[in-house]
Amino acid sequence: MKKTKALILSLLLLVCFGGAQAKDYNASLFGIKSNGTTMNTTAIQKAIDYIHEQGGGRLVFYVGRYLTGSIELKSNVTIHLNEGAVLLGSTNPYDYRQIPGTWLGLILANKAENIGVTGRGVIDGQGRETSYNYIDQIQKGVIKDELKYDRPASRPTLIFLRECKNVEINNVTWKNSAFWVQIYDQCENLNIDRITVDSKAFWNNDGIDIVDCNGVKLTNSFFDATDDAICLKSHDPKSICQNIEVSNCVARSSASGIKFGTASRGGFRNIKMTNIKVYDTYRSAIAIQAVDGGLVENITIDSLHSYNTANVIFLRIGERYEGEKAKLNNVTISNVYAEVPAGKPDAGYEYEGPVEDLPRNISPASITGLPGQYVTNVTLKNITIVYPGGGNPNYAKVGTDAKSLNAIPEMPKAYPEFSQFKELPAWGFYIRHAKGITFDNVTLTAEKPDYRPAIVLDDVHGGDLENVTINDPGKKKNEIVVFQSTDIKK
Questions:
Q1: Cα maximum dimension of the chain
Q2: Cα–Cα distance between 14 and 84 in angstroms, integer?
Q3: How distant, in Å, are the alpha carbons of 277, 347, 348, 388 from that of 355?
Q4: Is this prediction's pTM over 0.90?
Q5: Which residues, including other chains, have CB under 8 Å from residue 6's CB and lie 6 or more apart?
Q6: In whole angstroms, how far apart are CA 487 and each of 214, 396, 443, 457?
Q7: Which residues of the chain have a pLDDT value below 70?
C-alpha cells in the first residue's frame, strides 16, 4: 500500500510540475546581472552546467539586458528569454571562443540533445562594434587573421550548434550578428518557429544557415539580412542536407532570398518550401546550386511571391573542384508570382550588394548545367514573372546566332550567381545543358520592348513549352529560340 501511495504521489508531482526537465530557474538566482554592463559569461555558464547536472530545465531571463561572451548549451537545457529580456553579446573579441567542431559564437553547443532557445526576448550580438574591434586588433597585429575586403575571417555567430539533436528555437528575435546569424551544422530534429532575424550590422549576415542537417522545420519566420536570408549548405562531402521543410516565411536580403549552396559538397535532398515571400532582394529569390560535387535532388518550391528582386529562379551546375561532378535533378517550382525591377533592388541597405563593374541588360531567370552535366527533370508550373523589359542592343548585345550562343562562357569554377554570365540572349529564361524541362502555364511579361527573345534553349533535350504565354510589346515573331536541342515542343 505504501508503495502504491508513493507511486501515485510521484505521478501527481510529475503532472503538476512537468518533471525536472520542465523546471524553470530564474537567472538572477545564479548572480546573473541585468544591468547591461556586468559581464555574465561565467555566471550564465555555471547556471547552464547546474541545470544540466540536475537533469534539465529552463534558464529564464526576465526584463533586462544581460551582457555575455560565449556560453555553451548542455543537454536538456533551454535558454528562455521573456519579453523585455535581451541577451547582449560582448563587443570584446577576447570574450568569444569555440568548442571542437564549431566556429566562434555567442551560443554554442556540440553533440547536445534536447536543447533550445525560446521566448519573446532578443539576442543582440552588437556585431558592428564587435567586427570593428576585431579589425582593430588584426591591424595592430594582436590577432592573426585575414582581412578580405576589410572583413575579418573570424567573427562570432549568434548561435552555432554542431551535431545536436532535438533542438527547439522559437519566438526569439536575433539581431546584429558580426557574422552569419545562425549555424545549425549536422543537427537532427530541428524545429524553428516564429523567429525574427533583423541583422544588418555588418557584412556576411546570413539570416540562417542549415548545414548538412537531417529533419528540419522552419516555419512562420521573418528574415532581413545583409547576405543570404535562408541558406542551405553542405560542407561535408560525406554528409547531405535532407528532409527540410520551410513554410510561411518572409525574406529580404542584400544577396539571395532562398539559396541552396554555395557550399554543396554532399548536397541536398528532399527539400520542400511553401508559401515564401521575398522582397527588396539584390540577387535571386530562389537559387539552387550544385557546384561542389554534391547531389541535389527532389526539391519542391510551392507558392513563391517575389517583389523587387533582381532575379527569380537560378538553377546551376558548376564544377568548382575539378573532377567532382555534381548532379541537379527533379526540381518542381510552382505557383509563383514575381516582379523584377529595372533598378537596383536593395538600394537603401547600409551594406548593400555591389555595383557591378560591367553593368548589363536585365538578366533572365536561368537553368544552366555544363556540357555533359545536365540539369534534369525540372517542372515550372503556374509561373508568372513580370520583367521591366527595355533591353537595348546598343548598350550590350548577345545575339541568337550560333557564333554568339557558343561564345557564352561556361564558367564551371566561378562563384555561382545569376549575373555571372553578364549579358545573356534572352529576357525571360535562358536554359542551357538541360534535359526534361516542362513549362506548364508559364506567363512571361516584358513591360517595355526588349531586343531579345523571351526564351533561349541551348543544348536542351526533351522540353515541353507548349503552355507558355509571352507578353512582349516588341511583338517578335520568334520568342522561343531553340539551338542545338532535340525533342522540344513549343
A1: 96
A2: 30
A3: 25, 10, 13, 19
A4: yes
A5: none
A6: 38, 31, 22, 12
A7: 1-22, 357-358
